[in-house]
Automatic annotation (TrEMBL), chain A:
It holds the Pfam family E1_dh. It comes from Streptomonospora salina. It is an enzyme of class 1 (oxidoreductase). Gene3D superfamilies: 3.40.50.970. Its EC number is 1.2.4.1. This is Pyruvate dehydrogenase E1 component alpha subunit. One of its GO terms (biological process) is branched-chain amino acid catabolic process. InterPro entries: Alpha-ketoacid_DH_E1_comp, DH_E1, PdhA/BkdA, THDP-binding. Keywords: Oxidoreductase, Pyruvate, Thiamine pyrophosphate. Its cofactor is thiamine diphosphate. Residues 44-315 form the Dehydrogenase E1 component domain. GO terms for molecular function: magnesium ion binding; pyruvate dehydrogenase (acetyl-transferring) activity.
TrEMBL record, chain B:
The lineage of its organism: Bacteria, Bacillati, Actinomycetota, Actinomycetes, Streptosporangiales. The keyword Repeat does not apply. This is 3-methyl-2-oxobutanoate dehydrogenase (2-methylpropanoyl-transferring). Pfam families: Transket_pyr, Transketolase_C. It comes from Streptomonospora salina. It comes from the Bacteria. InterPro entries: THDP-binding, Transketo_C/PFOR_II, Transketolase-like_Pyr-bd, Transketolase_C. Its EC number is 1.2.4.4. Keywords: Oxidoreductase, Pyruvate.
Amino acid sequence: MSDNTAHGEPELVQLLAPDGELHDDPDYPLDISAEEIRGLYRDLVLVRRVDTEAVALQRQGELGLWASLLGQEAAQIGSARALRPQDTAFPSYREHGVAWARGVAPKELLGLFRGVTNGGWDPAEYGLHLYTIVIGSQTLHATGYAMGVQRDGATGEDGSAVIAYFGDGASSQGDTSEAFTFAAVNNAPVVFFCQNNQWAISEPPDRQTRVPLYRRAAGFGFPGVRIDGNDVLASLAVTRKALQQAREGQGPMLIEAFTYRMGAHTTNDDPTRYRASAELEEWKAKDPILRLRTHMQTAGIAGDDFFTEVEDEADRLGERLRAECRSLPDPDPLDIFHEVYAEPNTQIDLQRAEFADYLASFDDAGAEGGR
Amino acid sequence: MSVDLTIGKAINAGLRRAMESDPQVLVMGEDVGRLGGVFRVTDQLYKDFGADRVIDTPLAESGIVGTAIGLALRGYRPVCEIQFDGFFFPATNQTFAQLAKMRRRSAGALNVPVVLRIPYGGGIGAVEHHSESPEAYFAHTAGLRVVTPANAVDAYWMIQQAVTSPDPVVFFEPKRRYYDKAEVDTGASEAAAAMGSARVARPGSDVTLLAYGPMVKTALQAAEADTERSIEVVDLRSLAPVDYATVEESVRRTGRLVVAHEAPVTGGIGGEVAARVTESCFYHLESPVIRVGAFDTPYPQSRLEEHYLPDLDRILDGVDRAFAY
Ligand SMILES: Cc1ncc(C[n+]2csc(CCOP(=O)(O)OP(=O)(O)O)c2C)c(N)n1
C-alpha cells in the first residue's frame, strides 16, 4: 500500500465514480436491480431533506441542537440498506440515514434534539439501538450484542449480524480499541463501520492517527477496507459482503467510509474557525446524490418524471416534518421520575410525591393570589 | 487594571497569565487548539503559545488524563480540558485510581500537579450528557482538590491557584454562567482570597444559604427576593476540602442552614455539609439542615430541566421548611 498518512490519497473501493460512471470490482460484486437503485436515490434525497429541515428547525428555535449528516448520506444509506430485518445497528448520533433505513420515523429523531425525549424509539422494534452520544461507547455494546447473537446460534447464512457506526474521532477512544479486541478474539459477527468524515469537531484525522484508519484492523486480526464513502453502491456492496461474512462465522471487519462532513459539526459549531472553504468546494464535486443521479440518467435507469416525483415527495416530507416537530408536546414534569427503575423504588416514589405536592402548591398559591 | 470579563474570558485570561509566568504550563484537550475549545475558553492561546503548549489531543479522555499524569511526573503542569461533564467518565480510572493516589503511594515523592477543567451543570438546553453535576464523585475521592468559581473574579484567580497547586485540582466551570460578567483587577499581583476558602457573598442574619458554582447566582436572587427574612449567602468555592470554619461561623450566627446545589440530593455535597454542621453546630441550630437539589433521577430531557434544577422558588421553599421548625 502506498499511503502512509491519515490524509494520503486513499486506496478505496469505488464502484460509482464522481462523474457517475460505474465500474465493477471483482471482490465486491454488485447485484442490484434498477428498482433498487431508484430506491437508493429516493433514500438519499429524502434523508438529505430531513437533514435540511432539521437544521432550519433548529435555526427557528424548534430544536435545541442538530447534528447534520450532509455529505454522509451515501455511506449511511448504502450500509444500512445492506442490513436485513434481523440485523441490529448501533449508531452514534449522526446516523439519521441509518435510522431512516431502519424505519424510524424522522420525527422520533427530532424529539431527542428538541429535548422532549432522552431516547425516542424502541430499539428492538427497529433493530436500531438508541443514539449514543458518549463517543465510542456503542462499539462495545455492538460487540457484546454480537457475542450474544453468536451464543444464541442465531448466525448462519440466513442469520443475524451486527453493525456499529462511529466516527474517525471515536477511533481514538479506548472503548473502540477494546471493542476491536473483544470482537477479534471472539470472532464476533460484528461489522465496524467508521465514517471518516475528516473532522472530529475541529480536529482533522492527523490528530487521531498516523495510519489510515482501515489499517488499524490488521493489528487486531481482522480485515479492514476503505471505501469511497460518497458512493452509495460501494457502501452497499462492501457492507453486504462484510455482514454476510460475519453472519457466516468469519468474524468482524472494519469498513472505513472515506467521506466528508459538509456542514458544521452541530448547529452550535462554526467550522469557519478551523477549516478552509476550498476543502468544502473540493468535496462538493464528489456529492453522493449528484453522481447517482448522473449515472441513472446516462444508464437510462430513471427519467425526469422520476426525479420530479422524488423532489415532490421530499417537499411533502419536509412540510410534514415541520408540522410534526412543532406539535411535539412538552412532557409532563412528573415524567422526570418515570422509567428510572424497572422495579418500584421508594426513593423515587417519595420524591415524585413531594414534587407533585410542590407543583400543586403553585395552583393553590395562584388561587390565593401568590406568594 | 480593571477589566470587565465574563467567567469564560476570565479563565482564559488566568490561563494566559499562568502560561506566561511558567513555561511548564501546558493546555491540552479536545478542540482546545485552533477552535479555542467549544466554549472558547482557550481562545487565542494556540495562536500565541503554539501547538507544543496548547495541544489538540486525540479524542480520548482516558488518554488525556493518563498522559497528563505522565507529563506532570516529568515536571510539566498540564491543564486538561474535559469538553463536557458527561464525557469525563472514560477518564475515571486514570483520575480516581491513578491521579488521586499517586502522591500517597509514593510517600510524597511524587507530586502530580494536573488540573482538570470540567464545564458542568445544566440550564443551557443541551442534549443528554451535556448537563451533569458529577462533583460529588470527585469530592468523595481522597487526593483530589475540587473547586468551582461562581463569578469572573474568582474564576480569574482560582484557575491560577489551581495551576500552581502541587496537588491535582478538579476545576469545575459553571457553564451556564460562562457569559456572566464582572470587573476583574487583572493587574493585581495576587488574589485577595485562596481558592480553598468559602466566601460570604451576601451578609444576612436569619439563615445561611450555602451554594457553589452555578447555584450561587440563583441563591443570591432568592435572598434578594425574600423581603421577610435576612438570608446570608455563602459561596463554598472549594468542595474538597470544605472551609468549615467560614460555614460554621455563619451558621452559629444565623442558626439555620439551607444547602442548595444542582446535583441530586442523595450522596451530594449538601448531605455531607449537613452532617458535619449538625455535629459541630448542634446547639446553635434552630432547625435541621435543609438540602435543596436535583432529584435522584438521570438528568432529564432539556424541556424539563427547569423543573429538575433548583430555582429561586425551590430554594425559598427550602428556606420556608427551615423556618417551619
Ligand atoms: C467521550 C466523549 N468525549 C467528547 C465528546 C464531545 N464530542 C462530541 S462529537 C465529538 C467529535 C466526534 O468526532 P467523530 O468521532 O469523528 O464523529 P463525527 O462527529 O465526525 O461524526 C466530540 C469531541 C463526546 N461526545 N464524548
